[in-house]
Design goal:
Rossmann fold, 8-stranded mixed sheet, 11 helices, 329 residues, alpha/beta
């Protein structure tokens, strides 16, 4: 009998909550929007397209690193987690990165977690057909606020007991979207998800600007479309009157904070109105939409130690553009 994945939506952000947050961000001295607004169905597909771009090195660099060191990483995971683990995939998206680990790790249970619940549901339903014997669960949640899963999600299918081992998988350098204090909070919550949990996480490293900047401002304009899509969402969410033609995508590197910043810059003076509010933007004034922090190996290892992980290993590609860390204990 073909298994079917189970799905759970945890504390879905209400339309009013998202609208209130967006309203507050638009009124701030430096206007800002939460990156969670990127990931509606269209935004998720646009991000998948970004990962295929020649300029976007993180996905292919991480994939090559995992292919090169996969056997060593799998052996290290088995040493840290002797039993077949529950694999918890944070920001699962199209699930392809986790699926590449199935044959190496032989997980007992795959738990895919993503803010875009509808997109995840469709992806996981297709993936289950490819791996009919593997227990799969999908969880729609915004773990940027708090990472905590109900016990029944991680519990053993038959006994209801907590998993003997769990591997928290957070690839793609998405940890870079969190500022350092929030990244520390998320790492601590990941460690607390299950008894004896280990963490396998991808981290983008500091590198030359001629490599960094094109990854966030590609020649085809896919990243620009991804960024501008947030204005389309605001029009629907707030009843706003953003004209996308009035705005342009901008990527910059903040050296002091060691982060890429994405902004939407007004092409000309423009007044935007929405339910209960309005704002006049000067020409070139921006809305700050995303950060992507870049770490050193030493800096991220120190962050893992501060989060309580006693054992830490890492692997890098030959150019030291990207690192994968395994942390446990």
């Amino acid at each position: 009998m073909l298994r079917r994945p189970t799905f759970l939506q945890i504390d879905p952000p209400s339309r009013d909550t998202l609208a209130d947050e967006a309203d507050a961000g638009l009124r701030a001295p430096q206007a800002w929007l939460s990156p969670k607004l990127f990931y509606d169905a269209l935004g998720s597909r646009l991000f998948d397209a970004i990962t295929e771009l020649p300029e976007y090195y993180p996905t292919r660099t991480e994939a090559a690193l995992m292919a090169c060191h996969g056997a060593d990483i799998a052996a290290a995971v088995r040493s840290a987690l002797p039993a077949a683990p529950t694999l918890v995939d944070l920001g699962a998206g199209n699930c392809t990165k986790a699926a590449a680990l199935f044959d190496l790790l032989r997980p007992a249970h795959y738990v895919a977690v993503d803010i875009s619940a509808d997109y995840l549901r469709n992806t996981l339903t297709c993936l289950q057909r490819e791996y009919p014997e593997l227990r799969m669960s999908g969880v729609g949640m915004d773990f940027s606020v708090r990472l905590a899963l109900p016990g029944e999600v991680l519990a053993h299918e038959r006994t209801g007991a907590a998993p003997q081992s769990a591997l928290i998988f957070y690839p793609g350098s998405s940890i870079g979207n969190f500022d350092p204090p929030e990244a520390l909070r998320l790492l601590r919550e990941a460690r607390a998800l299950a008894p004896g949990a280990a963490l396998l996480i991808g981290v983008d490293l500091v590198k030359p600007l001629e490599v960094l900047l094109p990854a966030y401002d590609d020649a085809l304009g896919v990243t620009a479309a991804f960024n501008l899509n947030v204005l389309r969402r605001l029009n629907a969410l707030l009843g706003a009157d953003f004209d996308l033609a009035d705005w342009q995508h901008e990527a910059r590197f903040n050296a002091a904070a060691s982060r890429i910043e994405m902004h939407l810059a007004a092409r000309t003076e423009v007044t935007v109105r929405w339910r209960g509010g309005e704002r006049h933007f000067r020409a070139a004034e921006t809305i700050h939409t995303e950060n992507s922090y870049k770490w050193t190996v030493e800096g991220f290892a120190a962050l893992l130690a501060e989060a309580g992980f006693a054992q830490r290993r890492h692997w890098t590609d030959e150019r030291s553009w990207f690192a994968v860390f395994l942390a446990s204990g």
